[in-house]
Amino acid sequence: MLVQTSEAPVKAKKPIKKPRKKPQSTAVPAAGIWETPGELSVDEWFELNSRDDGGRYELIDGSLIVSPAPSAQHQWIGDRLRRFLEDAAPEELMVVTGTGLLLDSRPGVIPDVMVVERKPIRDGAQVVDPEWAHLVVEIVSRSTTAVDRIVKPVKYAEAGIPHFWRVEMKPFRGQGADELPVIFTYALDENDGYQLIHRVATGTTVDLTEPFAFRVDPEALSRI
User: Which CDD domains does UniProt cross-reference here (predicted)?
Assistant: First the structure.
């Protein structure tokens, strides 16, 4: 504090408060720019994910999770799986990638692949309600391992999504002699939790009947 002094007593001047400089922008926006403090609207979520940094911005239980852009291998597997599922899906279903999924009716996550009902998307829906989702797929990345294996499956099960698949494309604990990639398929059980149905390693195939007839072939996904 600066105070003017002299031999004669004088009253201290009030300190001059300098305006604080606004913090420089970072990869994650300050909460103050959001219309609703502490919570993103769907439009703000869209804006966040429209950045040119290639990152993926997801919210789970109010926590913002920022992931780097997927690798080329990750994208290749996701695109191949989308194509194979689309070829097998019935007319009333469609397969999407890079599309937002609401959780608790609020901005949520962006699964790698989703099988959803076609009608709401045709009618103009920009994000997916869990009630329309029949299958969600996560392709595990090093940067999102715990989220893809543990956190997201719990949220998907809580949302009532009937089927969840996890694709492991990097060496993992418990891999054993399985060749990569390995696909784990889960279905909701009577306790509303996911039960492992199949573990399919490269070199093997499994024919599924749910959510529709589909042959799981990990080798075909990774073939370049």
Answer: DUF820-like
- Domains of the chain by residue range: 35-66, 71-222
Contacts (Cβ under 8 Å, ≥6 apart) of 101: 108, 109, 110, 111, 114, 127, 128, 130, 133, 136
15 near 2, Cβ under 8 Å?
A: yes
Asked if the model's pLDDT at residue 25 lies above 60, the reply is no
Q: Give me the DSSP letters along 66-96.
A: EEPPPPHHHHHHHHHHHHHHHHHS-TTEEEE
Q: What is the pLDDT of residue 44?
A: 73
Phi/psi region, residue 174 (left: phi>0; alpha: psi -120 to 50; beta: rest), is: left
For the entire predicted model, the pTM comes to 0.80
Residue type at position 159: A
Q: Which fold has domain 71-222?
A: tt1808, chain A (3.90.1570)
Name the helix (H) or strand (E) containing 120. Answer: helix 118-122
Q: What per-residue confidence (pLDDT) applies to 35?
A: 44
pLDDT of 56 above 70: yes
